[in-house]
Amino acid sequence: MKIAYIFNDKLDKYSGVVQKISAQTEEWKKYNHEVELFSISNNPDNNNSKNVFSRFLHYQSNIINVLSHIDKFNPDLIYSRLISYSPYIKKALEKYPLVVEINGNDVEEKFKKNTLLGIFNLFTRDMYLYLANGFVFVSSELQNHKVFKKYNKKSIVIPNGAKFNPKDISTNKNKAPTCVFIGTPGHPYHGVDKIIKLAKYLHDVEFRIIGYDETTIKNIDNEYNKNSNVHIYGFLDSEKSRSIISQSHVGISSLSFHLYNMNEAPTLKSRTYVTCGLPVILGQHDPDLSSSPSPYVLQIDNTPTNVDDFLNDIHSFILKSVNTKPQEIIDNLFPLIDIRIKEQKRLSFMSDILQNRKK
Predict the structure, then answer these.
(1) How confident is the model at residue 53, as a pLDDT?
(2) Which residues pair with 134 in a beta bridge?
C-alpha cells in the first residue's frame, strides 16, 4: 500500500507522539509499504500567533499545501491522527480511503484548552469524521464513547505499542529508591502536582521529573524546592530522557485522567518506562498493562485523592522495586506492548478498509 500519514505535530520536535509515529511507520516499511509523512505544523506557513483567528487562517493555508502534496503522492489510503476540520479537507479526502486514529476525546480536550476552540470543534468535527472509512481507537472506552459511537464506522482497538532497544536498559541504578515521571506542561491530566505531593510524603524516595522547568513547577507549588528529593530536568531529547529513566527504579504514569472524565488510556510514558526495564505505577486502566495482575504493575484509583489513598501501597511498591531486575520487566511486560504485533493488526485493518472501498 501507498500510505499518506497526516498529523499536526512538528517532525523536528522530540515528543512521545513523534516517536510513536516514527516507530509505526518503520514497522509499515518492513512489510514493503510505501509511506510518506505529512505534518501540518511542519509546513513553512506555520504560524505561532496567539490570536486564534490568525492561527485559523494559517492552518487553512497549511492544509491546502499538505493536501496538494498528498495529491502528488497519490496514496492508496490516508492514515490520519485526529486533526481540526478545514473546508478544504472534504473535497481532497473524498478521493482516498481514510482511517482516523483516535487517541483521546477531542470534544473534552478542545473545551479544556479554549472555549472558542471547543465550540468550533463541536460544530465542525462531523464534517471530518463522517469522511472516515474506519477508526482505530487506542482504548475500548473511546470506541464506546457516544461522541464517536454515533458515526457508526468500522473500528478496531489497538493500544499504543513500543519497541525494545537493549541499549535502553541500564544496571547502573541510583543508590536511593528513585521514581521517574515524564509529563508535558499544559496537560493537567498528567498530574505532576501529585508527584510533588508524593515527594513531600516520601522523604526516602528520589523523584526525577522530566518535561517541566523549575518555573512551571514553582507555579504549581512554590515551596517544592524545600524537598531535596525532587529533581527537575526540563525538556530532554530521547537519549537523555531514557538515560534518566533507566537509572531509576519505578516509572509513574499519568495520575489525573479523572480531570478529563477518562478512565482508560495506554499512555506513551508507561511504555517508555517498560522498555527501559522499569516497573510502573498506573493512575488509570491501561488496556495492556492492566489486563491481568502483575507484581511489576501497581494500579491505583483514578480519583483526585488517589495519591493520598494509596500512599502506603505506593511506598511499599517503590521499595520492593529497588531489587527488580530490568530483564524481568522486559520478559513479563514488554510482550503486552510489542509494537510489531500491534502494527500487523493495524496494517491488516487498513488493508480491509482499502479492499472494501474498492468493492
Answers:
(1) 63
(2) 99, 154
How far, in Å, CA of 241 to CA of 182, rounded? 9
Query: What's the pLDDT score for residue 228?
Result: 84
Cell of 73: 503522492
The per-residue pLDDT for range 195-247, each reduced to its tens digit, is: 999 999 999 999 999 999 988 888 888 777 666 899 999 999 888 999 999 99
pLDDT: is 18 or 54 the higher one?
A: 18
Q: How far is CA 148 from CA 83, 130, 141, 145, in A?
A: 15, 10, 10, 6
Q: Are residues 152 and 212 in the same domain?
A: no
Q: How many domains does the chain have?
A: 2
Could you tell me which residues come within 8 angstroms of residue 193 by beta carbon, excluding any fewer than 6 positions away? 220, 221, 256
**Domain of 333?**
166-337
Do 85 and 149 lie in a common domain? Answer: yes
**Percent above pLDDT 70 for the chain:** 94
Distance CA 178, CA 47 (A): 40
Residues 175 and 280 in one domain: yes
Whether 84 and 171 share a structural domain: no
Cell of 208: 526525577
